[in-house]
Amino acid sequence: MAAIVADLDERRHPFHVAIENWQHDLNIGSIVRSANAFLADTVHIIGRRRWNRRGAMVTDRYQHVVHHDDVGAFAEWARVEGMPVVAVDNVEGSVPLDRADLPERCVLLFGQEGPGLSPEALEAASGVVEITQYGSTRSINAGAAAAVVMYEWCRRWAGPEGASLSPEGRSAP
């Protein structure tokens, strides 16, 4: 297991994923699994320390997972690290994902199934993006939304070998 983690650490992408966990959302495991599939650097769980690992399908053993007691502690970590926080929620003022800025180094912040992100989390973000939808539902499943946004980050920044690329498709320095 340590050898697998070491190998992944050499190739991880510079984006992080964060999830608010104040309702013990069952989607967290699924988001951790997607973060592993898209080779996110780290998953940050904000709020309750306990989460349902079942959906992670054991990928949490290979994925760095960090806990923050609250949004304030997470926001301070992001500030110190110089990581812009990109919130994902379909709220007033959100920019459609296909037209939004997704920095190469950033944290993609997801909320709970149903209520979405807390006001504190939205305040901590440097921008808010939404996934354009065409049907009658207000939102898609939080785990599915996270996978869509991580895929879009990879489509923009990750090459076929997992190397970061500039938006023009050239290898980034």
TrEMBL record:
One of its GO terms (molecular function) is RNA methyltransferase activity. PANTHER family: RRNA METHYLTRANSFERASE 3 (PTHR43191), RRNA METHYLTRANSFERASE 3, MITOCHONDRIAL (PTHR43191:SF2). The lineage of its organism: Eukaryota, Viridiplantae, Streptophyta, Embryophyta, Tracheophyta. It comes from the Eukaryota. Keywords: Methyltransferase, Transferase. This is tRNA/rRNA methyltransferase SpoU type domain-containing protein. Residues 15-151 form the tRNA/rRNA methyltransferase SpoU type domain. GO terms for biological process: methylation; RNA processing. InterPro entries: Alpha/beta_knot_MTases, rRNA_Methyltransferase, SpoU_MeTrfase, tRNA_m1G_MTases_N.
